[in-house]
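User: Could you go from structure to sequence for me? I need the amino acid at each position, not a summary. Structure tokens:
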């Protein structure tokens, strides 16, 4: 006999790239939840979710969806997590779980813990997977396959709730690990936020060149520049929120980067072949370690 799904009713608030990928996975496996609700502030998004047939029910009423659910996952921009959690938590059932996939933790853990009604657990989890695209058409069921999902439950969270969410993400195909909020934000500043800051800035620099030079740069862009444009095509609201929410850690990480960039520039200025080569070799080693770990 097939095992019962992990949850009876699951609501995804924000069925965009990440939310619709969870819904697709849930539809495909049947092991995540029996009944799938997609809730969003945009009727157009919900119309598309219904056309794609990736949820059993769609609604603009987040509170009604929350009241019926055993788990609610907020897949909305980082800046919207706190206000939406504040709105729906009073309606959630005892024994249910609130989660989110926000890219920055900052003070979300303690802030949301302070709002939890009796018997409701908060188990946020951040999948380290994505693309530059947004919206319900962008999702796909294998998005999380073999990627890390970082669980960041606040201290004192019921272990059964953490274990359920861990199983949930593993059934989405992800590798899982539990880390603290602060460490999460430090790691993500380096592996995700700084690279996006650089990609936006490289494209911005090219865009501000004189018209002729800009035209030719874009015309002749080979894979180096092209790879940066993929990242730079990401959603402005999502990235504005990430930069502002992880401001202090990102600025510290950027200062580190500035120092290293300055050392490379100095090596170039001084014709220091050895220093230049040594720095390039580090890059190759990092790429190889990602390939070895099946993360590239
Ligand atoms: N895109 C990625 O690569 C990626 C990866 C991991 C985590 N994340 C995080 O996941 C979250 C969602 O990102 P995405 O790329 O799936 O976004 P998306 O733009 O594809 O989808 C977000 C959805 O949230 C809805 N929404 C926005 N504000 C809302 C509100 N107040 N109430 C109800 N619905 C609301 C939007 O209408 C949209 O349908 C973000 O917090 C992001 O930082 C993104
Ligand atoms: O692959 C991409 O395009 C992404 O931007 C995914 C990415 C990342 O930077 O790695 C973006 C934000 C997330 O919070 C996690 C993953």
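Assistant: Here is the amino acid at each position, in order:
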């Amino acid at each position: 006999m097939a095992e019962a799904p992990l949850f009876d009713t699951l609501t995804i608030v924000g069925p965009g790239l990440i939310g619709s990928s969870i819904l697709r996975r849930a539809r495909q496996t049947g092991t995540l939840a029996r009944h799938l609700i997609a809730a969003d502030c945009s009727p157009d998004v919900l119309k598309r979710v219904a056309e794609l047939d990736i949820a059993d029910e769609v609604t603009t009423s987040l509170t009604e969806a929350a009241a019926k659910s055993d788990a609610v996952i907020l897949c909305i921009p980082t800046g919207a997590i706190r206000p939406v959690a504040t709105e729906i938590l009073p309606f959630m059932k005892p024994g249910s779980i609130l989660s989110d996939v926000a890219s920055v933790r900052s003070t979300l853990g303690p802030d949301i813990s302070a709002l939890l009604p009796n018997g409701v657990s908060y188990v946020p989890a951040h999948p380290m997977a994505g693309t530059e695209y947004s919206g319900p058409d962008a999702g796909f069921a294998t998005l999380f396959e073999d990627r890390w999902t970082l669980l960041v439950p606040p201290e004192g969270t019921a272990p059964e709730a953490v274990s359920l969410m861990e199983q949930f993400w593993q059934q989405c195909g992800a590798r899982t690990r539990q880390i603290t909020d602060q460490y999460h934000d430090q790691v993500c500043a380096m592996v995700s936020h700084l690279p996006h800051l650089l990609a936006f800035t490289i494209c911005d620099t090219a865009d501000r060149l004189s018209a002729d030079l800009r035209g030719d740069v874009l015309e002749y862009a080979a894979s180096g520049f092209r790879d940066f444009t993929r990242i730079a095509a990401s959603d402005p609201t999502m990235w504005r929120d990430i930069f502002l929410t992880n401001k202090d850690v990102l600025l510290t990480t950027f200062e580190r980067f500035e120092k290293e960039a300055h050392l490379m520039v100095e090596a170039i200025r001084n014709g220091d072949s050895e220093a230049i080569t040594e720095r390039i070799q580090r890059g190759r080693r990092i790429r190889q370690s990602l390939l070895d770990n099946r993360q590239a």
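One structural detail worth keeping in mind: Residues 13-14, 16-19, 40-42, 45, 75-78, 80, 84, 101-103, 126-127, 130-131, 134-135, 235, 238, 242 surround nicotinamide-adenine-dinucleotide (ligand 1) (CB under 6 Å).
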